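ugh finaly. both done.
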Amino acid sequence: MIVAGFGFRREATLASLRDALAKAGRAQAIATVTEKAVTEVFRAFAEETNLPVTQVSPDKLPEKETATHSHHSENRYRTGSVAEAVALAAAGPGARLIAPRVVSSDRMATCALAETNSRGDMS
């Protein structure tokens, strides 16, 4: 299972999320931080993609090692990349990053891909 993890700014649009996913690659599920999962733009994106959504608690992010580092992510969520940490957390134990974060053209959204080690349930 390939999970696309998302980080995005408050000003992000549906086009921002679409572009970030297009740059990252194909996914079978999407995920973001709990507080962002309930936003109108992410709910519309989830409906449009018709992919399962996993909400990741912010307290799970610092325990995930990320390939890239953003000062904003470090300051707000104590992780180098929200998109990468969310993808890894949603993909479950033993997941591996298969595409580090990419940034949408408007710089409002990031997306990273992680793959589960097994066909088991996502956590």
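ok and the 2nd:
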Amino acid sequence: MLDLTASMQAKLDQRATLLCHCWRLARRDGSILGFTDHDRDLVFNGVTFRANTGLSASEAEASLGLAATTTEAAGALSAESLSEGDLLNGVYDSACVEIWLVDWANVADRILLDVASLGEVRRGEKAFSAELRSSAHFFDQPRGRTFQRGCDADLGDARCKIDPAAFSTSGAAVAFGGGVLTLDLASALPTHFLTGGTVRFQQGPNAGATFVVKSHRQDVGVRAAIEFWTSPSGAIALGDVVILTAGCDKSPSTCRDKFGNIVNFRGFPHMPGNDRVIAYPGAQQQQAMDGGSLFR
């Protein structure tokens, strides 16, 4: 339930109001941006909420319970506010958004309507629309261990204990086309060593953006070809420096042979699969089904 001041309640009760919406957007890198659907800038809580961004809100619904709800905000793409390149490069992924209802004549009278996170963003030629997910969507995310054959830890996290920097290298861009980045690495690597890993740009229009490697092919010497799942939005210039980190397919053989970290493997490789569960004893079976170990 919203806690309204007497002044704000009186303004809401009027037939004509001086109210507008403001959005405070906090990115994961710490940058704070403000937007408003009013026709001039507004300032409160140390944030300037920019007008003329073309940002507008859709109808919002609220209900009791823990079901996740969504609203939508739409606006224009511009270099001064939200650029297409930043949206494509994931700069705004999971950003925290505060939605305010503000009296533009007296910004001290305002209501915090909701706190949401930025979800799916759809881009048009000159505009975008962003899904705003309520905090309840965090309850939809898996929690706890997952019992499966593959490892359920992420490379470099506290459970994996690998230092990703020890399996990283740098490279300089040579060419980019057709979604494939050709570069010279600091040292030659086996083909597929970087598959499933990441590429982080250190300079240029994509500086700070990280992309997942779809495939890695090592050519002659230190020359390598990297294909992305999602191509960078900004231009890649000759000599642009990137940091590349190895990928992990979460199998026990990769953990043992590639990273030497089998002692910290967090999967269950000897877990019987569905084929073993539904199998039945037979005279032609090579392996006895007598309840004993499957790996003796």
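summary for the 2nd one i guess: The mean pLDDT is 81.
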